[in-house]
Amino acid sequence: MTMRRDEALKLLAPHVKDSDIVVAVFTSAFEWIAIRPNPLNYIMTGAMGLGSSHALGLALGRPDKRVIVLDGDGSLLMNLGSLVTIGNAAPENFIHFVLENGTYEANGSHLIPGKDKVDFSAIAKAAGYRGVHTFSGLNELGANAESVLNETGPVFVTMKIEPGPQPNLDYGYMHSARVRQEFRTAVRADLPK
C-alpha cells in the first residue's frame, strides 16, 4: 500500500510550525510551497542529493529551530554518506522524511537502483538516527505525524508514496532572488543581537 505524495504532504502540513525550517527537494518542493507557503521553506532544486546535507547545516546553525527535510529516495541515494554524518552529529532538532516512490521522478521517472529492495529506515538506524519509522498509508501517517515530529532527533521517516498530480513547476519562482532573500531574512529574524 502507498499514499499519494500530495496527500501525504497535505496531511503533514498542519503539524509543521511556522517557526520550522523545511528543506524540500525537487518535486516535493514544488508541492510543498503550494501546500504550505512560508519564508522558512528552504527550496532545494538543482543540487540533487544535498538536501540532507543542507538541512544538517541549518539544524546545527539554528539549534533553536526544528528542521524538517522532505527528501526523495533517488536524491538520498546520491548522498547516503550524509546519513552517517547526521547520525554522528545527532542534531536533536532534525527530522528527515524520505518520500520513497522507487524512481528518479524529477529526471524522467527512471527506476532507482535497488527499487523495492532498499530499506532506507534500516540504513538510517544503522547510521545512528535516534528514531526511525516507515509509513505506507495515510491513516498510519496521520495517526503518527504529530508524535514523530515531537521526537528528539535525529529522526528518519520513510513514507511509501506514489506520485500525485504533476505540480506547477515554476522554476522562475524557485530560483528567484526574492525567495532567497525572504529565506535569509526569516532565518536570521530572531537571532540574538
Outline of this structure?
By secondary structure, the chain is α/β, with parallel strands linked by helices. It has helices at residues 5-12, 26-35, 51-61, 73-77, 81-89, 120-127, 138-149, 171-174, 177-188; strands at 3-4, 21-25, 41-44, 67-72, 94-100, 103-104, 110-111, 131-135, 155-162.
Can you walk me through this structure?
This protein is an alpha/beta fold. The chain has a single domain (3-187), classed as Rossmann fold. It is 41% helix and 21% strand. It contains nine helices and nine strands. The chain has helices at residues 5-12, 26-35, 51-61, 73-77, 81-89, 120-127, 138-149, 171-174, 177-188, and strands at residues 3-4, 21-25, 41-44, 67-72, 94-100, 103-104, 110-111, 131-135, 155-162. Strands 1, 2, 3, 4, 5, 8 and 9 form a seven-stranded parallel β-sheet that branches. Helix 1 crosses helix 2, helix 1 (5-12) runs parallel beside helix 7 and helix 5 (81-89) crosses helix 6 (120-127). It is globular, with a radius of gyration of 15 Å. The termini are far apart. The relative contact order is 0.20.
Structural class: alpha/beta
Any low-confidence stretches, pLDDT <50, length ≥5?
A: none
Q: How large, in whole angstroms, is the Cα Rg?
A: 15 Å
Distance between the termini: 50 Å
General form = globular
The CATH architecture classification is: 3-Layer(aba) Sandwich
Q: Assign the CATH class.
A: Alpha Beta
What is the succession of H and E elements?
Answer: EHEHEHEHHEEEHEHEHH
Overall number of domains = 1
Q: Percentage of helical residues?
A: 40-55%
Q: How many E-type strands?
A: 9
CATH superfamily: Thiamin diphosphate (ThDP)-binding fold, Pyr/PP domains
CATH topology: Rossmann fold
